Structure formats: C-alpha cells, structure tokens
Amino acid sequence: MQRLQAFKYELMPTGEQQRQMRRFAGSCRFVFNKALALQQANHEADGKFIGYVAMAKHLTAWRNSAETAWLKDAPVHPLQHALKNLEKAYKNFFEKRADFPRFKCKGQSDSFRYPDPKQIKFDQANGRIFLPKLGWLRYRNSREALGELRNVTVSLSGGKWFVSIQTRRVVETPLPHGGAVGIDMGVARFATLSDGTFYAPLNSFKRHETALRKAQQAMSRKQKFSNNWKKAKARVQRIHARIGNARRDYLHKCSTTISQNHAMVCIEDLQVRNLSRSAAGTTETPGKNVRAKSGLNKAILDQGWFEFRRQLDYKLAWSGGHLIAVPPRNTSRTCPACGHVSADNRQSQARFACVECGFEENADVVGAINVLRAGHARLVCEVSGAVMPPAAGTHRSDSGRLMPT
Ligand SMILES: [Zn+2]
C-alpha cells in the first residue's frame, strides 16, 4: 500500500530568509483573502462559483497589476496553492464538513506550500533544503524522512519557522489485529470506548488558561504596535503554540493506542454544524453536545474531535484497519440490552438506566456500545448491498473484507 507521511523539522533560516518567508506567507494570505472577497462579491451579484482555473487567471492579473506588483516577489506556486486552499474550504463548506470560509488574519496560521517536488531539492545528508526564491535553508535534522518527496509546507509557530515535508512511499500492507470498538466522544471524558476504557478530557487549555489570560491582559495594557506590545504579543503566541502542542500530543497518543489495538473503529459522524447547532441551544439532541456551550471551549473541542478523527482514519489505514463513521442517531438514548429508545433512559449526564428493562451503565459507555452496533449494522448492510453508496466520507468501500466476528 501507499503511505503518505509528513516529516516536520525546525528551520534555521538567516535573517533575510525569515523576512522573505514572512513576506511570502503574507502574500499567500493576501491572495486567499482577495480571492475570498471576489468570490463573495461575485456571489452577491448572482454570479456562479469561480473555479480554480478562472481564479488562477485573476491571480495572474493581480501579479501583473501595478497596485499589487509586489506579489511577483513571492513564488507563484505557493500563491496558486493558496487559491486551492480556498477552493477546498468552499468544498468543505458545500459538503457540510466546515463553516463558511473565513478571512485569514496575520499571525494566525502563517504558512505556505510548495506543491511542486521538481522545484525542491532536499539534501538530508547535509541537513538543508532548497526552496524557490528562498534558496538553501538549514534545518534541525531530527529524524530521517522516508520516501519520495511530494510537497513542502513552510509555517511559523510560536516565533519559530518549520518545514513539513510530505513524502510518499510503498509499504507492505499490514494485517489488522484486534477487534472492533465503538467510541463515544464527550466533554467530561474526551473519548469512551465500548469496552469501558476512557480517555481524560481534552482540557490542556485549562492548565494554560491563567497564563494566557494574564499575557493577554498585559498585551492589552501596552500601546499598540509599540515594542513592548510586540513582546507581549509574542508571549501570547508562544502560549497559544504551547497549548496547541500539548493538545496535539494528547490526540496523537490516544489515536495511536486505539488504532494499534483495533481492526475496526466506529465513531459518530459529527459535523461541525451539528455541533454548532446544538451548542447554540437547540434541544433537538439533548445529550453530550449541549455541554460544550462556551465559545472558545467549544471551538477547541470541535477542533479536537475532528483532528482526532482525522488521525484515527490515517493511522488505522496504516495499520490495515478501518474507521467507520455512523450517523449520530439516538446513540445516547437507546438501551443496549433491550433496544428501548427513550430520552428518559438518560437519567443524568453520567448515568444511563433503561426505563423498560432496568439495564444500568455509564452513559458514555452506552453511547460507545450503540455506536459500535450502528457500525456493525452499517457493514452488514453494505455487504448485502442494501446501502449504496456509503454516505460517510471516511468510509472505505473495500471494508467488506472486514466482517465483524
Ligand atoms: Zn432496556
């Protein structure tokens, strides 16, 4: 099987390279925002969606216009890639996987990608990489990148520059081991498995919350754009980066353990909008989502859940397993013992007690069991041809060979 993998290294750029990278990231952001504004204005004028090819022509015009001639200083492929990113953001929105594309601000995901491997020279032996318009850059050679280089992303995080090298290589298809498991995602417990194991809540943010609040307050007291303000701002960004890293580490640990020990993992097919809606206070789905009410906390949870699912998906693929997304229907209200569906079964946030047969269990474990059942049901349907095609995006069509036992 083919395996795509990213290898990330810290760059050791010269001062001039840092200035250039900042400019390139700014140019890509500018192109993204300009294209988004154009797309919106066009939509308001009842125009049709502007596809990538047409948008790339606009980009050429911008690069040739006297007003934005500085765009020519940036490498063209990363600028085009910014347009591809916008198109992808729209696609995710159209397919209800994400909210409407937002304008990018400076300091938030400063990055750009070189999509063409032919323009890149990767000299691992000497710990350096050649990128168009930047020249040779040194990086901290922390581990060996395996496979054939596909593309390179340069990004700024916490005041440091990184290069992420995506490669492709052929590896032997592994045989999956372990059984099937269902996962219930929540707030009080980040993830609960149908076998009863659970993972602590995703609250790495809380630990740094005070530090962040203090740093933000300090920043607000400084005069904007003064040197002290810049210092305070750098501190806020460092704390943000630290929070992000802690969260990513945690998600990776969870997703690695689960994917290494199971051949089939079933998860609720949560969509951003489902979460947003219920978090806004609709009583359609009285259950776990409603708990994630407060704005920032909710955003972090959304991110965490989606990132977790993304990681599970590719890690399971690496280990020969499968991720199956099931629609979140009554998973918190159905009795696993007798099948009775009632909101009354959910006595409290933590406790499930069936009003019909008296079955009692932790509510999150019940949710996970029901997710697992729904996943099994889905597989059986597909194998017999009753459901065609699979509705969930992450589901692989060759999952028929993985019958539940
Ligand atoms: Zn029951």
UniProtKB/TrEMBL annotation:
Keywords: DNA recombination, DNA-binding, Metal-binding, Transposition, Zinc. The keyword Metal-binding applies. Residues 172-278 form the Probable transposase IS891/IS1136/IS1341 domain. It holds the Pfam family Cas12f1-like_TNB. GO terms for molecular function: DNA binding; metal ion binding. The keyword Cell wall biogenesis/degradation does not apply. Residues 305-371 form the Cas12f1-like TNB domain. Residues 1-48 form the Transposase putative helix-turn-helix domain. This is Transposase. It comes from Azotobacter beijerinckii. The lineage of its organism: Bacteria, Pseudomonadati, Pseudomonadota, Gammaproteobacteria, Pseudomonadales.
